TrEMBL record:
Protein's recorded name: Phosphatidylserine synthase, putative
Lipid bilayer topology: Multi-pass membrane protein
Molecular function, one GO term: L-serine-phosphatidylethanolamine phosphatidyltransferase activity
Keyword Repeat: no
Transmembrane region(s): 42-59, 71-90, 102-122, 352-370, 390-408, 420-442
Alphabetical keyword list: Endoplasmic reticulum, Lipid biosynthesis, Lipid metabolism, Membrane, Phospholipid biosynthesis, Phospholipid metabolism, Transferase, Transmembrane, Transmembrane helix
InterPro entries hit by this protein: PSS
GO cellular component: endoplasmic reticulum membrane
Length: 463
């Protein structure tokens, strides 16, 4: 006869503190916290849901309402019904802090977003623009993309402290916080640094299509890679060291004698219960290399989609939907990446977790939506210049050769000469991309004229 939930919680309570988490399938709870907050409260949620729907219904009948307002309110009510249902009834993932209900709420929002993107994908560009204009008429205003490479001087007579004012820009602070979050989520500074440098390569690669990607060399190297992304990565590393070195001894709340101790325990509910290190082992095997490369691709595509979507939908970077999307993806990445890591690292895990599954499909649908709108609207159709295309072909060929030789012929790693060849291919690919950045960046353009003349003379590239 299976034990009751109370017996399961009692059994877990007698276990070590680090394992004091109970799963009454499909829900999680902590046996050393308040039992009340882990009870379902389905009837209470039902009353709250009905009350809010009734309030919205009364709002709909206020004087001055029109059909468009009623449609907006009805869609909001339908979304609210699903969010409440999902927050109560969707299964839990692997995250227990601050409360499983919070992560069920995030999953509900992500599923709604996935359904919205799937719906928009089946509309034409004119319909999409009309829908967003109904949501907010500001979408009918075309906002020109800002270029950050119009004047690349570090100091000017008009702005003697131009470099420092650029560093303390609010967007650069957002970049730092973003890479702090990436480091806390990925938990490997090498992977995060690869994401950072990879996106700078993306900016140089697509700067002829998105003026927003045009930046000065010092903006790429000093502001982005070193100060913002690097600084955020270092802060994330220190955060991991703090939580990783912290002893976790959890006592049941009712067993804490003092009011101060109980208050401290409640505040600790908003800190991680445990902090496991991630060992990605990127070069362990061809399969593992591919899995980590897929992770890098997902993070890079997510950032590219942010810029391309706001360009297509005529949204400024400060428009509320842009940061809301980033916040949703940030919270979704926490359990999603945990589930992905367990899926590729633990042989006993046979299914990709719900958060990772929803996040992957949502990102895929985002990319399909952008590609469809690009074709219909003629976005991002500027031809790729030779200074971008040729270096990528060379670097891609060198990296492909390295992958085949390194993983396909393992015996090559034993010889000094063949290891040298592998290093030449591996690091040579990155040197080619570095040369591309120096040649094709908006303000450096080192050797660009000579390269273009050579390409034109030998007819190596057709734009």
């Amino acid at each position: 006869m299976p034990s009751s939930p109370q017996h399961q919680r009692a059994a877990v309570a007698s276990a070590p503190a680090t394992t004091a988490v109970s799963r009454t399938s499909p829900y999680l709870s902590e046996v050393d916290f308040i039992d009340f907050v882990y009870k379902p409260h389905t009837l209470t949620a039902m009353v709250i849901l009905v009350s809010t729907l009734f309030a919205l219904w009364k709002w709909q009948h206020l004087p001055g309402g029109d059909m468009l307002s009623s449609v907006k309110l009805g869609l909001a009510a339908a979304a609210w019904v699903f969010v409440v249902f999902g927050t109560i009834h969707l299964p839990d993932g692997l995250m227990v802090r601050p409360h499983p209900i919070f992560w069920r709420f995030i999953l509900s929002i992500a599923i709604l977003y996935l359904m919205l993107i799937a719906f928009l994908t089946f509309q034409d560009l004119a319909t999409v623009k009309q829908l967003f204009a109904w949501y907010d008429p500001i979408h009918t205003v075309v906002h020109p993309e800002q270029s950050y490479a119009n004047d690349c001087r570090l100091s000017t007579p008009e702005e003697p402290y131009k470099f420092w004012t650029t560093i303390f820009d609010i967007f650069l602070l957002a970049h730092s916080m973003g890479y702090w979050a990436k480091m806390v989520v990925i938990r490997d500074w090498r992977i995060v640094t690869a994401v950072s440098i990879g996106f700078e390569l993306v900016e140089v690669t697509f700067q002829h299509q998105l003026p927003n990607f045009k930046e000065c060399w010092w903006d790429h190297v000093i502001c982005d890679v070193l100060i913002c992304n690097g600084g955020g990565t270092v802060l994330g590393y220190l955060t991991l060291k703090l939580f990783g070195a912290k002893p976790y001894h959890w006592a049941r709340l009712e067993d804490i004698p003092t009011l101060k101790g109980k208050a401290q325990r409640v505040l600790k509910q908003f800190t991680p219960r445990s902090f496991d290190a991630y060992n990605w082992h990127m070069f362990q095997s061809a399969k593992r290399f591919t899995q980590v490369c897929l992770l890098l691709t997902v993070f890079t595509m997510n950032e590219i989609n942010c810029f391309t979507m706001k360009n297509i939908l005529n949204q400024k970077p400060t428009y509320h939907l842009v940061p809301m999307r980033l916040v949703m993806w940030g919270f979704l990445a926490v359990p999603g990446l945990r589930e992905y890591y367990c899926y590729i690292s633990d042989p006993t895990v046979k299914r990709l977790g719900t958060f990772a599954w929803v996040g992957t499909i949502a990102l895929f649908m985002e990319t399909v939506f952008i590609a469809k709108m690009r074709v219909e609207g003629g976005y991002f159709t500027e031809p790729t210049p030779a200074s971008i295309g040729i270096p990528w072909i060379i670097a891609g060929s060198m990296m492909a050769a390295w992958v085949v030789l390194y993983f396909g012929v393992p015996c090559l790693r034993r010889s000094v000469i063949t290891r040298l060849l592998l290093n030449v291919l591996y690091f040579g690919a990155f040197l080619v991309l570095l040369a591309m950045c120096c040649m094709a960046n908006a303000d450096t353009q080192w050797g660009l004229e000579e390269f273009n003349a050579f390409v034109k003379e030998h007819r190596l590239w057709e734009s």
